[in-house]
Specification:
By secondary structure, the chain is of the alpha/beta class. It has 2 domains: 10-90, Arc Repressor Mutant, subunit A (Orthogonal Bundle), CATH 1.10.10.10; 95-323, D-Maltodextrin-Binding Protein, domain 2. The chain is built from 11 helices and 13 strands. The strands form 4 sheets. Strands 5, 6, 7, 10, 11, 12 and 13 form a 7-stranded mixed beta sheet that branches. Helix 1 (10-22) packs across helix 2 (25-32) and helix 2 (25-32) packs across helix 3. It is rod-shaped, with a radius of gyration of 30 Å. It starts with 9 loop residues before the first helix and ends with a helix.
Length: 324
């Protein structure tokens, strides 16, 4: 009873086809950039695996047997399909990069620089509002990369993700124009005592931000303001917040809002640790450019230098130490 292999190595088929087309082992070996001895070995292995003699070899010439001629069209189809597959995946799909919100500068600057570093790659911006909202999409493969506070994610989400610190982003507060602190150039954190500050409470896409606020406000007599109707997009957010003007916890690069003033927070300077976050095992040439861009811009702009009076939560400090 004849035996048929369950699998044929395409490399062996490629060796066979080169000899079949050249009818000369030396020329075929030159064409494949391999040693003639190695090529002969591959052809003999294919003959053993198929249980058929494919060539008649003499000192003067090489000719195909009937089985060899029968194999040629099959080998061409298999190798053609393999070449098409490899070509398709050499043309990398777009890298989907979540920037949280169109107005936030950190991720946008990194993305723009990555596009300069890898102009042949397509890096597409997405907007998922917050890292927690993006994490499920990352794990499902519907997003590739996001930005945000990694320590603020639930452990079950962190387990499938990896991260690279991009920036210690100074935090700020948006104040209504008539607020008692609006005239200050900088607002000491403790000056917010007695206030309720909006920090995304109740928004399922940004719990890591609300958690950061709670840790900052703890022991300072500052409350996290209750939830407001969930707004999608800057215009809707501005409309909802205008109904009940209240201080809003933000970062120094937060986009301007009507009838609000942005003031840096000081004494201490609270910092939002912004990381590049991705699904473990992600491989993409655009992703490599994104990581290089984050390092380059971070060094150039001093994003990774913590002020002497800078503050970040202990949980973030511990996680970043473990990452190192």
């Amino acid at each position: 009873m004849s035996w048929t292999p369950a699998h044929v190595d395409p490399r062996l088929l490629r060796a066979f086809l080169a000899v079949a087309e050249e009818l000369h082992f030396t020329r075929a070996a030159t064409r494949l950039y391999v040693a003639q001895q190695a090529l002969s070995r591959d052809v003999r292995r294919l003959e053993r695996e198929l249980g058929a003699e494919l060539f008649v070899r003499t000192t003067r010439q090489v000719t195909l047997t009937a089985d060899g001629e029968r194999l040629v069209p099959y080998a061409r189809r298999v190798l053609g399909a393999q070449d098409e597959l490899l070509a398709a995946f050499r043309q990398a799909r777009p890298l989907l990069v979540d920037l949280n919100s169109p107005g936030l500068a950190t991720g946008r600057r990194v993305l723009h620089r990555a596009r300069e570093l890898a102009p042949e790659q397509e890096l597409m911006a997405r907007y998922e509002s917050g890292l927690a909202g993006a994490a499920g999409e990352l794990l499902a493969g519907r997003l590739d990369v996001s930005f945000g506070r990694f320590a603020g994610l639930e452990p079950v989400l962190r387990a499938g993700l990896d991260h690279q610190l991009v920036r210690y982003e100074p935090m700020a507060v948006l104040l209504p124009e008539g607020h008692r602190l609006a005239s200050l150039a900088e607002v000491p954190v403790d000056a917010l005592a007695g206030e309720a500050v909006y920090a995304g409470a109740g928004n399922p896409r940004t719990p890591e931000w609300t958690d950061l606020a709670r840790r900052l406000f703890e022991g300072r007599d500052i409350e996290v303001a209750p939830p407001v109707p969930m707004a999608v997009g800057e215009e809707e957010f501005e409309r909802v917040m205008a109904k009940a003007p209240t201080p809003i916890l933000a970062v120094v690069g937060f986009p301007a809002m009507p009838r609000m003033v942005l003031r840096p927070l000081v004494d201490p300077v609270p910092l939002s640790p912004v990381s590049l976050v991705w699904r473990k095992g992600l491989v993409h040439p655009g992703f490599d450019a994104l990581r290089r861009a984050a390092v380059e811009i971070g060094h150039a702009r001093g994003w990774l230098r913590r002020p002497v009076d800078g503050w970040i939560p202990a949980i973030d400090v511990d996680m970043l130490k473990r990452k190192k």
